[in-house]
Amino acid sequence: MRKFCLCILILILSAIVGCANRACDKTKEAYIKQGVANVKLEKYNQAIEDFSQAIKLDPNNAQYYYKRGITYGNLNQHQPAIDDFNEAIRLNPKYAEAYSNRGFVYMVKLKNKKKACSDWKRACDLGDCKNLNLAIKKGLCKN
Question: Looking at the structure, do residues 88 and 116 belong to the same domain, yes or no?
């Protein structure tokens, strides 16, 4: 009986150690959910870590870069935000929200009206015209 219990204990410990050594404790979806929750709690640095872990597990998912870009924007880290929006667009050239939010960073944070209007026009071509319409109303972009 003692041998049996010892064997069971060894198996359990092996499973725990094996799982700790592999990336089996969280899936990319779990990291994304945790990242979104951390954004809502305004724990932006932790959210960036969560989104980065999801990106490591699935580096071709444009949405993960987009979410991390938004989070960098919340921290006023403009270049990393733009880099992530660029990657999201590279992975999905029809990602209207990525163009729209990159345009927002260009306009509001970096005061680059030309790049902002260009991004908002592209976003509008893809179906997201909110920022372009507002910019046209305010005289920031031409129709």
Answer: no
